[in-house]
Amino acid sequence: MGTTNIRAFIAVVMIAAGLISSGCQSLQSQPDNSLYLQLGERAGIADVVEDMLYLIVEDERINHQFKGINVARFHRNLTDQLCELSGGPCQYKGREMRELHAAMNITNTQFNALAENLILAMESNQIPTGAQNRLIKQLLPMYSDIRHL
Ligand code: HEM
Fold first, then answer.
1. Is CB count within 10 Å lower at the N or C end of the chain?
2. Per CATH, which fold does 34-146 belong to?
3. Where are the domains of the chain?
């Protein structure tokens, strides 16, 4: 093979390698962040959690459970958790769910009250109903940890 042929051969190999690797990338499953985007990213989620906190304070069914908590920490950790659960680039760094809620003896009514407040907060932040349902669906598996079943 002459020098020109070798150069041409190398160029073809490089192009082929490029095509194969880009093809592989498109085959790799990309993380689905569509829910995160629908929720308005971390800032949108933070607004929802803030509004949910105001509703909790007014809600006689559950506000006694929240007396004296560190509000800033709750807000930060729940925001990160919902961000992560919805496919966003956050990492939940709070306490373990089961341990954290164990001593609270949370009832079904209280669990539903919190979910209701979350939905109301999403509603007042114009989150589309489909996205609301998708987020609630992500939270449902936590039911047995929160209720300590
Ligand atoms: C799916 C439902 C729920 C989720 C995803 C959830 C999530 C969380 C998260 C992420 C935190 C903050 C953790 C940390 O700061 O380390 C937290 C704290 C807390 N949760 Fe829940 N929770 C749920 C249901 C409930 C319910 C139903 C109640 C009571 C009615 C409740 C009462 C509390 C309280 C009082 C705290 C603050 C504890 C403290 O800082 O000492 N949670 N929860």
1. C
2. Globin-like (1.10.490)
3. 1-30, 34-146
